[in-house]
């Protein structure tokens, strides 16, 4: 590895990814005592911070919105692999894991990440601007995907319970993949300018130090991309490693099994959360919105097709339909997001409302 490749990358960002991966290998399929649990948590936190740094290096090289898209896609692909792995090893008890994790990801991104970014950004900058065209496009696709994939199974009659028949699941998987593919085409090619950050003078991009700084070299960006994937594998793997302790804690507390999916989604989405908050602090709220809504879209648009394919060899039922409480929360999220994104200007109040909805989701997940 030449000095020109690693130039500009802090030494800790080169050391943390392999160390986190080593922690994953050491603790994989082992019972976590107090020491190993602390080690896993430290490795998880360090991997998240390093992942965000490398994602920003790649984003600076390729530009927006490709940077946020790469981070969202990378996290989601590994998250899908985690869900399929847990379902394959969990039997009938894991029949609703995909639904719980995907719905939790939607609530976390559209209320938790978005609300937190709005709050921290408005506390520093009072009022922040973003592009209505991009935000409404993402919200429209997200609403359609959730309704077709997670709401409809509750009302279909071809299969017993809140499930799709094989044909219906195949249709939902193809539709999800096509809609997400069209959105990515719009985001990156046809209307890329819709998804660029807004400057105070209304032009594209942001007039800040990051914008004027020299872009990293191709070699540095490729190295960061590789280390980003190592970090994300470590994040998801360590989240899976700690999940048995989470399941035991959930059972001991008498909380519903769905809480496990919520906690897994929270852990997996930590890199996007940190990246979105950092962008909002830099007055790049459009980047935060791209991350939040883009992560929700990637989670649904890739998970449902993957589950549809995996159902060929997965045994046991596949529960996808949401319950009444979840549908109410989803409807509230859509209405709140529509009102938040309608003006293109965000304030502290809008962020507080989203965080209130997110808090209600967490509370009702523990106490249904």
Automatic annotation (TrEMBL):
Entry keyword annotation includes Transferase: no
Record flagged with keyword Transmembrane: yes
Keywords: Membrane, Transmembrane, Transmembrane helix
Protein name (Swiss-Prot/TrEMBL): Ionic transporter y4hA
Domain Sodium/calcium exchanger membrane region per the UniProt entry, residue ranges: 34-188, 224-365
Alphabetical list of InterPro entries matching this protein: Alkaline_pH_Ca-Antiporter, NaCa_Exmemb
Sequence intervals crossing the membrane: 12-28, 34-54, 66-90, 102-123, 135-155, 167-186, 221-241, 253-270, 291-314, 320-341
GO-annotated molecular function: potassium:proton antiporter activity; sodium:proton antiporter activity
Source organism of this protein record: Kribbella jiaozuonensis
Pfam family, one: Na_Ca_ex
Membrane topology: Multi-pass membrane protein
GO CC list: plasma membrane
Subcellular location: Membrane
Domain of life: Bacteria
